[in-house]
Write a structure and sequence with these properties.
- With 397 residues, this protein is of the alpha/beta class.
- The chain folds into 2 domains: 4-178 and 337-395, Medium-chain alcohol dehydrogenases, catalytic domain (Quinone Oxidoreductase, Chain A, domain 1, Alpha-Beta Complex), CATH 3.90.180; 181-314, NAD(P)-binding Rossmann-like Domain (Rossmann fold), CATH 3.40.50.720.
- The chain contains 10 helices and 18 strands.
- Strand 11, helix 6 (234-239) and strand 12 form a beta-alpha-beta unit.
- InterPro entries: ADH-like_N (IPR013154), Chloroplast_QOR (IPR052733), ER (IPR020843), GroES-like_sf (IPR011032), NAD(P)-bd_dom_sf (IPR036291).
């Protein structure tokens, strides 16, 4: 399938002393003659770390226009932490929530009036630059992928137990797509949905970040899978292995299902429950609208009184064990992340707007380090999604 894959380049230099809005109407992309040099030491075990780094920040909640490229100190590595030199970072709906400050209830944790932590990014792939006290199993120069707050930066500090080793054969941009969406899909199906061979599974939001992992994972577990998305994205859902596809515009979504995985979207809770078999399970993931918040609250209140049916709301647990499980499937060819596009990190605002408008299939990957910093790879185990698909609010996180 055709795709738009942008060649990587380093973070551009700012046209202010500290920061500049990225790709806002009055701020063009950084000129190449002022770009950061492309030659970065590949062997981080012998590299001298810089005092500062470039990162994407937002000092307030809002649209993509609040994003800035800024110089800040390289993170200090505490006990049990690993400093990662970021090669690529994944963009999913969770980052959009943090940029917008939605749902508003989440601001209780992340800052009421403005973000407590200005940096963005949740998942990454790169090389170890330094390890903190007590860290075993990782050394400078190791290729890794996993979870880290502030991943949209040249360096990010991550807890060692939220990272996994990355084999040479898997590109950084492929690995960066896996942690957030892949682990969420895995836990939704295996732990909360308790999917079994032969069961019927419906994935709502099958063309989004979580959905494009959930469809092939459900097939891997032996389920019969129906994927729901907009009409323009149903071919992609078929490619992922769905046995049946449904257009969100249709009133009939089939059923009954043993498991319904609702990723984003805004279907009423009552309609979702009617899709379930007598002993079926509904797993709800993500969403930022008032309708979604009512669904989550309603699910929490009704769950104890719904006989035989289970209603679960999911917040994924970030851990190395599930990263290793997904890596095993990826290495064996049983799982292929769907990459919407690979773009330089300076185009994050554009990517955010595409994500918000529903124009993204799968995951957008942001390249931070130039290609010379990444180890050569033998194959690219990933789907590439079409970049011409129209807006699809059903895509989900």
């Amino acid at each position: 399938m055709a795709s738009r894959r942008t060649l990587s380049r380093p973070l551009g230099a700012t046209n202010k002393v500290n920061a500049t809005p990225l790709l806002s109407p009055r701020a063009p992309e950084m000129p190449p003659d002022r770009a950061v040099p492309r030659t970065l030491e590949a062997d981080t075990s012998r590299a001298t770390l810089p005092a500062t780094m470039k990162t994407i920040v937002r000092e307030r909640y809002g649209s993509a226009e609040v994003l800035e490229l800024k110089d800040i100190p390289v993170p200090h590595v505490g006990a049990g932490e690993v400093l990662v030199r970021v090669a690529a970072a994944g963009l999913g709906r969770g980052v959009w929530h943090l940029m917008r400050g939605r749902p508003y209830l989440a601001r209780l944790a992340y800052g009421i009036r403005k973000p407590k932590n200005a940096q963005l990014g949740l998942e990454l792939a790169g090389t170890v630059a330094r390890v903190g006290e007590g860290v075993v199993g990782f050394a400078p120069g190791d290729r890794v992928f996993g979870f880290a707050r502030g991943a949209f930066a040249e360096y990010a500090a991550a807890r060692a137990d939220k990272l996994a080793h990355l084999p040479e054969g898997i590109p950084f941009e492929v690995a960066a797509a896996v942690p957030d969406s892949g682990v969420t899909a895995l836990q939704a199906l295996r732990d909360h949905g308790r999917v079994r061979p032969g069961e019927r599974v419906l994935v709502l939001g099958a063309s989004g970040g979580v959905g494009t992992f959930a469809v092939p994972l459900a097939k891997h577990f032996g389920a019969t899978v129906t994927g729901a998305a907009s009409a323009a994205k149903l071919d992609l859902v078929r490619e992922l292995g769905a046995d049946d596809v449904r257009d969100y515009a249709e009133t009939d979504l089939g059923g009954p299902y043993d498991l319904v995985l609702a990723v984003g979207g805004s279907l009423p809770l009552g309609q979702l429950r009617r899709l379930l078999a007598e002993r079926g399970t509904l797993v709800i993931v993500g969403g930022e609208s008032r309708t979604m918040m009512r669904r989550l609250l309603g699910a929490a209140l009704k769950a104890p009184f719904v006989r035989r049916r289970r209603i679960v709301t999911l917040v994924a647990s970030e851990n190395r064990r599930d990263l290793a499980t997904l890596l095993g499937l990826l290495s064996a060819g049983a799982l292929r992340p769907t990459l919407d596009s690979v773009r330089p990190i300076t185009r994050l605002p554009e990517a955010m707007r595409d994500l918000e408008a529903g124009r993204v299939c799968g995951k957008v990957i942001l390249e931070v380090a130039p290609p010379s910093a990444a180890a050569p790879h033998s194959h690219s185990p990933a789907h590439t999604a079409p970049r011409t698909a129209p807006a699809d609010p059903s895509a989900g996180p």
